[in-house]
Fold this protein.
Amino acid sequence: MSRSAKIIVVEHSPIIREGLKGVLNFSKIRVHLSFIDSFEELKTVSEKESIDIIIINPSFVANNPKAFDIERMRNGNVKWIGLVYAYYDSRVISMFDSIISISDTADTICSTIDRAVSADSQKGQSQEVLSEREIEILKLIATGMANKEIADKLNISINTVITHRKNISQKTGIKSVSGLTIYAVVQKLVSIESL
Amino acid sequence: MPFSISAEHKLSDVIAASPRFMLLPEHFGINYPLGDKSIKTVCGENNINQVLFMVFANLYNGMSYSKVETLPFSVAPTIVGFLGNSHRYYLEEMYPNILATITQMAELNDAKEMSLVPKFFVDYFNEVAEHLKYEDSIVFPYVLDLYQQTSIGVSSKNTGKYGVSEYKEHHNDIEEKLADLKNLLIKYLPLKNDQATRRKLLLLLSDLEFDLNIHSQIEDLILIPLVTKMEEHLISEK
């Protein structure tokens, strides 16, 4: 079955726009791309048609998380992907479902899109097994360590920690630190006495 | 499944059709029994804007909020009253109820990890209570004050002290932990002698989740845009 996805790209730069278009030619999914220039236009566009993915330069929303939240609520099932080519605070990065970075290979970008499209259809059957790295990070979360501390301890970037956390939450269905702590105890990854 | 509701329908029929509407009149401050009055009549008697009532009714109907014709500033006190009543329901009834059920479950089930659940919930409850009290004591009075100013043109000394843009963004957190608790109960926490209590708890959590979701839609998609409009209106008057 060949899947298709309606993607809106909120980005000014013609170079980035064309580049993205070129890269997505390699995607296994049929993508319909539209480009818009402002966050405000999203509202009009999303009222007219159904959208699967919004790829957006974080600069449009970094200073207005409230408007972003409202737009997210309005478009319940849409996946938001940040298109990052400047430094952003981890708080901004964590606003998105996933991230495309300017340094990503074409393969990585296509599989990010692929995962975003299939996330919903796979929800019920996604592999719940955490990877070894994810378990390692989960244990540190359960002991109360913050993202920054985990990043320092494992010598990885804070964005990587955030991505791992997102995957852990997606696999387990548990998002909060206190919830993950209980999960880690139930799974015998940490002992109740060590908390 | 959502069904079609019109203002000509009897409110009692709507509630009889689905228990999900049960809290709708309560939060508006409309008392049971409802008799045979239509929605239109009930709104008239209780001084509730009918458009607003229908918007809220459709949220309880399971429909997501879609833009309606502009609501007048005069609905602000009604919305604040509705949200305040919901807060009382959460704090005085729903959360204590859930806590009692969780405590009961932890007593029945002696699995070690079960002892973490009451603590999880108490911490969470405290966070929620703090947020709701903040809204009751800061946000709502601000909204009412703003409405006063737009309606009688009196400039209060409070202006400028607070803006709705400062509105804290706690709702996601509140709903997130609730979903976590549900998932823990359904997917992970070992079952020991607590089947009936767990079922009762899950029903309570689902009810709360349903109402909280509507609550935050009302605040984020209806109240905040209305307040922003009032703020802009007052600035342009100056």
